[in-house]
Amino acid sequence: MYQLDPVKQPRLVFLILVLCAMIGPMSIDLFTPSLPAITDAFHTTAEMSQWTVSIFMLGFAISMLIVGPLSERFGHRRTLLGGYTLFLLATAVILVTDSIHVFIAARLIQAVFGCFGTALSRVIARDIYKGEQDIRILGMIGATMMVAPMVAPSIGGILQQIWDWHASFVLMMIMAVLTMLAVRLLPGQDRFNSEAGLKETLAGFTILMKDRRYMTPALSASLAFAGAFVFVVGAPFVLIAGFEISPRNYGIIFGLVMGAYILASAGAGKVTDTLGHNRTHLLAWIIMFLGAGVALLTALLTGGMSVSGFVTGIVIYEIGLGLFLPGCQARALAHLDHHAGTGAGMLFFLEMIVASAVSYCAGLMVLDNTLPLASLMCTLLLMALGISALIMNGHSKRGVAV
To answer: Could you report the per-residue pLDDT of 325-379, keeping only the tens digit for each?
Structure first.
């Protein structure tokens, strides 16, 4: 069967990996402009309709836990194709059902199996490029994944206006079918262990949690990501409710913050090519601490009343994060031969768990100024640095290179 050449056709390979990665994020909120129409069509309440979005996040977390063991048992491409097949079946059920409860259950199945590509696209990229362009590809995939959920509601709104709520789910099916066809063109061979039992497969989690070369970048990335997630969960209360910034202007600020991350993530490969892995990693740390420091210092000097200082600090932090995450993902997966799929899934799962915990903590705070959020962001970044230094120090004492 014909396969693409990653050297001669890198853009096509990248496009396929992006398609694999973005189906899950696009499916989260593509149909959200249709929620009122869905509420009317199913004769239900707004609260029940919103479960069609909330349940997807639960499915996303489950997906990240099971995708690794499945891919190691059946192979990365087979797992992707099987997942997208079940995603298509779940989407078909959504299109024909007249029960909101079946709709919600099908959304859970959509999430569990449609998000396989979010993790496996990174593993396949690593296998294809073998460290030569891994940070470049991981950075571009990460940038695309941030763009997808931002533009998806706009696309869904147009589809709702032209047709009705079914249109968004038809688009999901089209994307899944195209991706299934395209995955077969990816270069390389599937590696899998068809004789591995459940015990051997699940043992990968234990092995990874004991692997300092994996846990150091994984935990550092999770905590650093949570530092940025502070803005997502807390800024609307501080800026809109506290400082009475209009939702429109908040949208502009949010776009500026996300744009900083997207541009930095997309350019991470070029920066790494110029500076090298270690210098880029150090530069990312410096930029993140500079951003967190600006946000905290301006908050301390103004009693938490400086919106410009807080936003400036967040933008700087996001630039550092965009350089930091692709490098952490590449470092975590680089040495994994037998549990790369499980490792990729765990990376996302750890990020989601830590971000959820931070969201809960932010909910306990009195968010009437910028100081609580700036303090929480700095604390998380210090924790990331502390854990990284602690694990590497313990590792070096045992005479093992990190």
So the answer is: 998 988 888 888 777 788 888 888 898 888 878 877 887 888 889 999 999 999 9
pTM given for the model: 0.80
Say which CATH architecture domain 10-186 belongs to. Answer: Up-down Bundle (1.20)
Tell me the C-alpha distance between 187 and 234, whole Å: 43
Q: Among the residues of 43-133, which ranges form H helices?
A: 46-74, 76-96, 100-114, 116-129
Give residue 188's pLDDT.
Answer: 66
At 401, is the pLDDT very low, low, confident or very high (cuts 50, 70, 90)? very low
Domain ranges of the chain: 10-186, 209-395
Query: In terms of CATH architecture, what is 209-395?
Result: Up-down Bundle (1.20)
How would DSSP label each residue in 234-296?
A: HHIIIIIIIS---HHHHHHHHHHHHHHHHHHHHTHHHHHHHH-HHHHHHHHHHHHHHHHHHHH
